[in-house]
Structures are given as structure tokens and as C-alpha cells.
Fold this protein.
Amino acid sequence: MSLANLTPSPGFEDWLPVEYKDLVNEGPYFREKKPKVSDMGKFKEILEEHPMCAGCAMTLFIRLTFIGLPNPEHSIIVGTAGCGRLAISQASIPFIYGNYGDTNAVASGLKHGLDIRFPNQPKDVLVMAGDGGLIDIGFQQLMHSWFRKEKFTTIMLDNEVYGNTGGQESGMTQHGKILKMAPRGKTGDKIDALGLAKVAGVDYIARIAPTNPSRVARTVRRAVLVAREIGSAYIQAYTSCNIEYAIPTPEVMQDAFDVEKERYGFEEIISDRAKEYLKEIEKKDKKK
Amino acid sequence: MSDQQAVKVAPPPGKPDDWVPAGDLQEVVDPHWFFHEAPRETVFITGSEAAREAIRRANVDCAISYPITPQSETMQQCGYLYDEGYIKDYYRGEEEIGVMSAVGGASRAGVRSLTATSGPGLMRGMEAISSWPGARTPLVLLNMCRVINTPLAIQPDNIEISFLLNTGILHLHAEHQQDFYDYSLAAFLVSEEVDVTLPCVVSVDGFFVTHARGHVSMQDEKYKIPPRDGWRSAVPAMDNENPPARISRDAPIQKSNFISYHMHASWQQEVFAAVQRSAKYFKRYIGDQIEVVNPGAEEMIIASGSCVSQAREAVRQSEEAGREVGLVKIKTVRPFPTQQLIEAVKGAKRILIPEFNQAGWLHQNVCSALIGHTQAQIAPGPRVYGGMTMPTELVLDWLEEFRKPNPSFTF
């Protein structure tokens, strides 16, 4: 997208909603220095209003993800059914809401097509979908996009449950948890999606909880940059469902800290070539 | 004009430094001239080869493949076209849900997109396929018809067409190798028209056409049709080249309120209206939606696909026997040529509908179109399926039976 596309003609400016004008004048697009998490409240964010549940950790994570995008003006998000899309579809970035579990196949085709049309302008494709959408119904597409080394980022919003359909167990639910469709407790283990990503040769893998906002933004930026130049990237984010897991709203962040400490600590698994690339990029960033 | 940015890229692995993609050496020509005026040479090739030659001239950006009999040959030929540089990008997907989703993704990026499949593969990809029209993704799916399991069979039978009829997808049914060549090229052009912006399926009866040779009259391979222009579309490409809006293109209409009901309803109305609007563009390239032989005959055969060839022979043999039998060939299954059909069978007293499937989807469509517009009796057959061929004698026997005061088949 060019700045000319974004900026309204002078004659029309007065007739545009304040919301749009703010996005043009105060949004994160085309800034030499991207707004940081610490600038929140001082710029117009890509995601603001949304219909998510009060206290939802997923919403916070999505909001931070958008701040972390290195080039929001050239990013496209692909999603599927699940809680996340209620917020993502309200963001000022194109969003493809596809069929159940098709995200990584759609993103593959989209990325191939965008590379043909825009060989001189990287277009960052991100899949942002839930644990059920990726590890259950979307498993095959997820794995094969990794096997093919598709150059886009996959972000799993892992609330360890089918939240949007009312609280059924998913492949990412922990062993023994009693949820709908697991009346006697889940029999299998939480699927080791990080391990699968590693086996598939994903170049940038991260596990994260939304406890440190700047770290979330930095992780997203790293993933997108690796996907742009090196290969597949995968972020698995703990984004609790306070409704289905009955976490009192004021305690959502405490839960995130507790789970992070217990079993969801921040971890990055980066291939050597991705490490080298990030080192170079981040050295340049520091110089700026 | 293409919106694709000119760029110098390194040659692919295994190609010399001075390698030039064969597609770059082709000349983009006006589609009308290409279809109607460009010199053609006739060759004797299989249906799969006819598809390959159409694709060579179709300026395809992205082709995504998955093998299934009898389609495999076409998409592996596409692989060779990619290697030669006639197609810009190509890969083998994981299976049909993945492939049909991915080709929808490629189309959303604004590039000319292609895939192909057969019966069971089509059914596997059906959720993705049926969502293409609503997503307004122009693309082409070549469908080499095959029995749907079970029991398992790889034989020709076009039952799968019945599953596509109410999806909002444009659909052509090729009679022979020549049709498969011409229809495939027309499909890209019509599907990408701004007031159409819909996917198009070109079906052909597997083996009978795909693996058999026929005469195909083709333009020189130095020509290709104009590229898809990603900016020209009923909906914006998902390329983030438009001003931001806090609403997705794929509208968030899943909330339960009257606005969402109306949004969904009007979106569907527009898809099916676009199907109708495509008729004028098909006419531009493949002529009328139907072909009529012996108009005004009291006995008419209505057919599509390779059944038309069987019917032509029945018409010829009837003529030798001193009887005039007419024939209506349905070229566009969607949009269905309702008005043209009503006109074509005005004088008919008996209508026979031979089909290569058990369900009789063409019979149902013809009956729906003609109800209240004809006094003719419409026979539900003959039908063969499961891989059977349809001897001309079977069509002639049904015609003979039809002439009796009380024919043995029911209506």
C-alpha cells in the first residue's frame, strides 16, 4: 500500500470519519520509527474496539501482535473460525476469514500469488488462529505449509479449548482436563506443537505468554522478519479463556504469570540461518 | 496492462544464466482476435494434451496440483509448462482441501490461478470449492469427470457435476478435445470480468475425452491471452493496497441479527446474478450457450459433454433411416441457458436426455427450465454410469420406444 492510497484527497478529508483520519495521521503506517508498546495511548492502534469477552487475554495478545508488525501497511492476516477472528476482523488490516482449518493452505496460495505480483515489495502474510483451528482441523495444512517451508508466520492463539463453540476440549488441552466432549477428562496429552514445528524444520519457533508486552511485540517482529526472508515462523501463545476455565477477570494476568512459570515459559528455537539473519537486522536496528 | 512489477530475478536452479521463461517470449494478443481471427493449425491430441496447450496460451500465474486419476496427466503437464516458464509458480499441494483452499488464496492475491481434479478429489475439496464464489475468487478448475466412490472405481461418469450446480460457480461441459481447449481459455477470461469475478469449472468426461485423441484446432503457441489484472475485480484483492477499513472483505456476518441475514442474503443474490451476467462474455468467446442441430424437429435430444457426440451419431443414423431428429448441445451448465432452451425445443413433441450419470442432473435441470413452456414429453434417459459407454444403439432404442403410445419407461 502506498501512502497516496492511504491519504484522503483534500476535498474528501472533512467527510471521513474521525476514526479514519486518526488512522492516517496517528496510525502506525509508514513511520520511519514504528510505535512501540511503550507508546500505547499515544498512537492510533490497528485494533481498538472489539467484541471479545471482558478480561480476555487473547485480545491483549492480538493487540500487541499488531503493534509488533514490522510493516502493517504490507501485512495480510488469515484466520478461521474461533474467538480470535472476532477481534482480528475489526482491525484495520485485510483479514481473510476462511473455512474451518484452511488457514495455512490459503496463506500458502496467497503468499505465492503476492510474491508474483509484488516481487519488489515484501508482503507479510500471517496466520492467526486458535489451537483447534490449527492443531486439530487445520493440522494437515499446518504441517504441510511447514514441510514446504512456506514463508509466512503462523500464530497459534492457544487458549487450550474451543472457546467460540462453547468450551470443548482441543488437541492443545492438557491431559485430564474435564471440558465439554471430555466428560471424564481428556485422555490424550497436550499436543507438542512446538516439537512438531521443530521436526518440520520451522526456522523461527517461539512459545510465549502475554506477560511481557514488549517481548510479545519483539517476538512477532522477529517471526515476521524471518518468514519474510528465511522460512516458516511459528509462535505459540498462551491466551487463556477466562470464561471456559472460570478465571475471574481480575485474575487473568495472574493466571498468565502462573502458567508461564509452571509450563509456558518464554522459549525461542531459531535455526542457525535465521539467527544469523536476525543478528544482522537487529544490529542495524540498534545503529538507528 | 499487467500490474505485475517488472523485476530481474535469478534463473531457477538448473537453468543457464541467460534463461528466459518461455512465457516471456510469447506475445500478448487481443482475446477476440485470438479466438476468432488468429490462424489455427489442427493437431490430433488427447484431451489432457488439449488442456496443456490451452494452459500454455492462458498466461497462468499460479498452478497448484494434486494427483488423481484421470486428471493427473494434466497437472503434471502443467509442471513441465512451469519448468519451461509458461507458468510463473507451481507446486503440489497436500491433498484437495489444501489445494482448493490454496488456489483460492492465490486468486485472492490477484493472480491468475489454476487447478484440476476428478470426482473423489472434487468431493474432498468441496467445502473450499463451494466457498470460492462467495469469496469472489476468479480462478479455473479443470474437472476430468470420474465416478464418486463407493464402490471404488476410476471410471468415467459425471455425477460430480450435480454437486457443483448450486454453488454459484460458472460451469462449462466440454463435448470433445476441441471444446476442452477452447472452453479452458474462455473460462479464464470470463471468470475475471469485473462484473463476474467468479470461479469457473470446465468439466470433461474422463478417459473418453482426456485419454482419447481428437482433432484440435489451435492458435500458434507464440500467442497468449492478456494477464489477469489484479486491480480489476468486483472486490479488492487481499494485497493491502487499499485504504484500511476496520472490516474484513469476507464480511463478519456471523452475528444473529437482521442486518447479518440481509447481508448474507444480498451477497448470495449478487453471486447468482453474476452467474447470469457471465452469459454475455461466454457468447463472446464460445458463441451461443447452446448449439442446435435440426431446429424445429419433433424429436429432440438434449445433452452435454461427450453424450453430445453419441447423440450426434444417433441424429445421423436416424437421418439415414429417413427420420429427422434434433439435438441441443448444452455448453454452459451454469449459467443454464433456460431461455435459449425454451426457444430451441418449441416444436418438439418428444425430448430425450441421455446422460453419463445415475442422478440425471441434466434431466432435472431441463425439466425445471421447460416446465410450463413445452407440451413435449421428456424422457428421463437413457443413462449409463459407473464407467459404461453409451452405444448409439441405446439412444436409438430409446427413441424407438419413445414413439410407442405407452413406452416402457416412466416420466
Summary: The radius of gyration of chain A is 19 Å. The longest helix of chain A spans residues 213-229.
